[in-house]
Amino acid sequence: MAAVLRKFRALQSAFAKTNLPTLTSSRFVARSSERQDSNEGWLSKLSVRKIEPTKESHSRMLSDKEIIYALNTHNIRPDSMDKYLVNYEEYVNLIHSKKSDLQCDLIGSWIVEVGDMDQALHLWRYTGGYERVDRTLLTLSQDQAYQRLVKEQGNYVRSRHLQYLLAFSYWPQLVMRDTPNIYEIRSYSLKPGTMIEWGNNWARAINYRRNNDEAFAGFFSQIGRLYNVHHIWSYKDLQTRKETRESAWRSPGWDNCVAYTVPLIREMHSRILRPTSFSTTK
After folding, report:
1. In angstroms, how far is CA 156 from the centroid of its own chain?
2. Coil, helix or strand for 207?
3. How far is the C-alpha of 48 from the C-alpha of 264, rounded, in Å?
């Protein structure tokens, strides 16, 4: 130990005798101020602004409709896709036969082509809020044909997941497509407490994505996995998707909207979807 201390003191002495430049505080401040302006805007985008407390629920601030959407995600056995689709089409027809009583209709039904393979997504709409959801579930629980189809469906799937969603009020009105399209669902898992800030930024950002009518639907979760956002876009094909997205990046202001939302995201993924033969939107 004594030898180590002697060596350290010798090095101190050697450095003291050299004419090495010293880093003064004035030089540091000068250099810092030169970079401050250029970095300030970039750094501000990386911080998540504090959301002030409010007595109004975030759901009411972000959505203005008494319409509940149900997003069903089914992971299907690879050898059972055809049987599954036959089963689910019969399931859809049964529910639509009771539409006047249930006030429940299918918006879209898709198979994943890129992303989570052997997966199907079904988007349902309940008009009348959660009261309508409760009445629909009660009615179907007493329907033997419905129960038979659900039980049969269990032979074809590996797992199922359900989320109840609300539509963002700033998103364009949901319009069914009647010509063939592919769809992209971009799903985001946000940091808790950031949904309002996400909505504020995307209320501006959506204006950059209206030119080609690609915005199909935008939702946030209320029940199921929370702080989830789903944006669904429709395109003629993958090449059109590429050109549309590149066009958005050339629009002044789009890059800032993206920069402000990136720090709010914990995880995100994209899936390309193809409508089933019985999907309402094409």
Report:
1. 27
2. helix
3. 7
CA angle 100, 103, 105 (to 5 degrees): 105
Position with higher pLDDT, 109 vs 29: 109
Q: Which segments of the chain does DSSP mark as H helices, in order?
A: 2-17, 25-46, 58-62, 81-97, 99-102, 129-141, 144-153, 195-205, 238-249, 254-261
> What type of residue sits at position 170?
Y
C-beta of residue 95 within 8 angstroms of C-beta of residue 147: no
Question: What's the predicted TM-score (pTM) here?
Answer: 0.80
Distance CA 28, CA 252 (A): 35
What is the DSSP code (8-state) at residue 250? T
Q: Which pair of tokens denotes residue 181?
A: 């399209």
> Is-contact 76 120, C-beta < 8 A?
yes
pLDDT in tens, 19-77: 433 333 333 233 333 333 444 443 444 444 554 555 556 666 788 678 999 999 999 99
Q: How many residues does this entry show for the chain?
A: 282
Task: Quickly count helices (H) and strands (E) in the chain.
Answer: 10, 8
Tokens of residue 37, six digits: 């302006």
Q: Return the bridge partners of 114, or none.
A: 272
Residue among 232, 162, 226, 163 nearest 195 (CA): 226
Residue 172 in contact with residue 209, Cβ under 8 Å? Answer: no
**Pairwise CA distance, residues 127 & 142, whole Å:** 21
Question: If you search the block for the tokens 């429709």, which residue do you land on?
Answer: 234
Residues 155 and 209 sit within 8 Å (Cβ to Cβ): no
For 208-240, write each residue's pLDDT tens digit. 988 789 999 999 999 999 999 999 999 999 999
